[in-house]
Amino acid sequence: MKIRTKIAFQFTLIVALILVVFSLSLYYLLEGYTKDEFNNYLKDRAQTTAKLLIKEKNVDKRLLKVIDRNTLSSLYAAEVLVFNDENLVTYSNIDSVNKFPYSPEILEKIRKFKYHEADYQNKKVVGLMYTDEDLKKDYLILAQAEDTYGEQKLERIKDAMTIGLVSSIFLTIIFGFVFAGQSLKPISRINQEVSKITARDLTKKLSTGNNKDEIAQLARNFNEMLSRIEKSFELQKSFVSNASHELRTPLAAIKSEIQVALEKDRTPEEYKEILKSLNIDNQRLIQLINGLLQLAKSEKGDKSLQMVPIRIDEVLFEVQDELQHQHQNYRISIDFEEIPDDDESVTINGNKSLLRTLFNNLIDNACKYSENNMAVINIRFNKSNCIINVADTGIGISKEDQEKVFEPFFRTKNASNYKGYGIGLSICKRIVDIHGGRIILKSELGQGSNFNVILPHL
After folding, report:
1. Residues 60-90: pLDDT tens digits?
2. 109 and 232 share one domain
3. What is the pLDDT of residue 64?
4. By mean pLDDT, which of 329-338, 351-360, 394-403, 415-424 is the weakest?
5. Residue 124 CB partners (closer than 8 Å, separation 6+)
6. With bands split at pLDDT 50, 70 and 90, how would you rate the model's confidence at 362?
7. With pLDDT > 90 as the criterion, what percentage of the chain qualifies?
8. End of a domain among 297, 312, 339?
9. Which domain holds residue 447?
10. Same domain for 290 and 352
């Protein structure tokens, strides 16, 4: 079922229920009012008869009967009987009491409750007790009549309400479809615009209409999603392009060296030199591929990564031992700004392998780009974060390049003389993001760089 049809159906159902409840309530209210009005009329007739017949002693019964008989042909002709204590008829406004059937049960209820209203043989019946103060006698007055006019009026009201209800529901269905179509028009427009957007052209954006309602908010959110998808596609294209370019260089060098080696026979020493050169290029290729794999893994944001409490100083000391073992000329200093009172201040919830990669890249860069091959690491903490500062006195980074150094494959101009692929810092940024932290760079050309890694501790 289409949304338009569903909205129109639900709208019609709600309106129909409201109209039905309103119509029924109004009808029963009018029915009760009509019944009360007619019962009051019968009550007045009974009281009037009692006053004229019992209280006014000089009133002639025959004259009263003549008057009542003349009113029997009217629309509200009421039949009146007066009973004494023994339930014998002392007065009747009709010639024969047999023509005026009544229920003994109703008489008992009238005597019991002093006043009673009932329905008997399609007629409304009202009975009351009247006391003759002079004779100290009780009389029961019974008045009944058929409410012809009231029933006709209620029948006409019922017909009018039925016609009105059916007409209203029919109009509600029509207007429901019209209004649902108008309300869903912006969504139909969005559907048409979305159908024109392809993977080759993500620059198209949806119209946000009046920029005020929920449809406009939906269009804005969709445009933001398109922008993120476009950015992801651009990163993917850039990744493939740069990875292909970086992989081509060592592979081309390996191919050239193999071709040169095969041009003529060479001595064992020459072959050894060629193999050494091939091994160096192969190591570069392995490092590049490992870097690309780490970058791809960090960009993927693997949710299955195991996060456990880890002391950040222990990770730093392990990285220090590893780098100094690989590079004898590296000098790495690690110190606390102040000694922590408890382990939680320097313990974070993280993945040890990723944290080792993070600090390995930062410390290796600090040593590699400094003439003295020295990196100074300072550890400090506050109420919520553990802050690790990695500083060097190397070549530094210009202000215009500082915003780009965390992008994959970006390398500053002054770093072209150093080995690298521009992958390390982008991996560091992604690892810090995975751990819910921040990385802040402060640097000046020729004066070195400071990387502040801020990670939430336990």
Report:
1. 556 555 555 555 444 456 888 888 888 888 8
2. no
3. 56
4. 415-424
5. 35, 38, 39, 42, 117, 144, 145, 146, 147
6. very high
7. 26
8. 297
9. 304-456
10. no
Tell me how far apart the alpha carbons of residues 431 and 439 are, in angstroms, rounded to a whole number: 10
Tokens of 15: 């309106």
Say which residue the tokens 């398109």 belong to: 226
Which tokens belong to 48? 């009037």
Residues 257 and 120 placed together within one structural domain of the fold: no
Write out the chain in H/E/C secondary structure: CCHHHHHHHHHHHHHHHHHHHHHHHHHHHHHHHHHHHHHHHHHHHHHHHHHHHHHCCCCCHHHHHHHHHHHCCCCCCCEEEEECCCCCEEEECCCCHHHCCCCHHHHHHHHHHCEEEEEECCEEEEEEEEEECCCCEEEEEEEEECCHHHHHHHHHHHHHHHHHHHHHHHHHHHHHHHHHHHHCHHHHHHHHHHHCCECCECCCCCCCCCCCCHHHHHHHHHHHHHHHHHHHHHHHHHHHHHHHHHHHHHHHHHHHHHHHHHCCCCCHHHHHHHHHHHHHHHHHHHHHHHHHHHHHHHHHCCCCCCCEEEEHHHHHHHHHHHHHHHCCCCEEEEEECCCCCCHHHHEEEECHHHHHHHHHHHHHHHHHCCCCCEEEEEEEECCCEEEEEEECCCCCCCHHHHCCCCCCCCCCHHHCCCCCCCCHHHHHHHHHHHCCCEEEEEEECCCEEEEEEEEEEC
> Dihedral angle at the C-alpha atoms of 356, 361, 367, 371, nearest 10 degrees?
180
